[in-house]
Amino acid sequence: MIKVSIQPEAFDVGSELAEIGAAPAGAVVSFTGIVRDDSGEMLALEIEHYPAMTTRAITSIVEEACARWDLVDVVVIHRFGRLDVGAQIMMVATAARHRVAAFEAAEFLMDYLKSRAPFWKREIGPDGASWVEAKAADEDALKRW
Fold this sequence. Notes:
This protein is of the alpha+beta class. The protein has one domain: Aldehyde Oxidoreductase, domain 3 (Alpha-Beta Complex). The chain contains four helices and eight strands. It has helices at 13-18, 51-68, 99-115, 136-142; strands at 2-7, 27-34, 44-48, 71-79, 81-84, 88-96, 120-125, 128-131. The chain has a four-stranded mixed β-sheet with strand order 1-4-6-2. Strands 5-3-7-8 form a four-stranded antiparallel β-sheet, with no helix packed on it. It starts with a strand and ends with a helix. 23% of the residues are buried.
């Protein structure tokens, strides 16, 4: 099963995990990203995207992960809209016969989502909003793949 969902609504991690990893999987790896406030001033994160473009791009990278690793199931959920600090922003879950494939594929997908997925983010603070710029560390993380 491959599931890619770009949605404004919160998701239930337990429910999502309950749907993946049936036999012949031997490992399920999941990661849930949370909106964090590094500055101590942020109130929320606002995420914009073009639905067809975003879904197509993320589905393509999921298909690449499936071609590189022997995956049984993949779930990628990414939210958009206004998300308060502490809210879930995204989830990646991979199921594979072996743990190494599940871990590597999950990291690959997370690195892609962080640096290449077509989302535009603005940090909302008490003095207004500012666009989030790409970080060199996120770009560097992609180099290992």
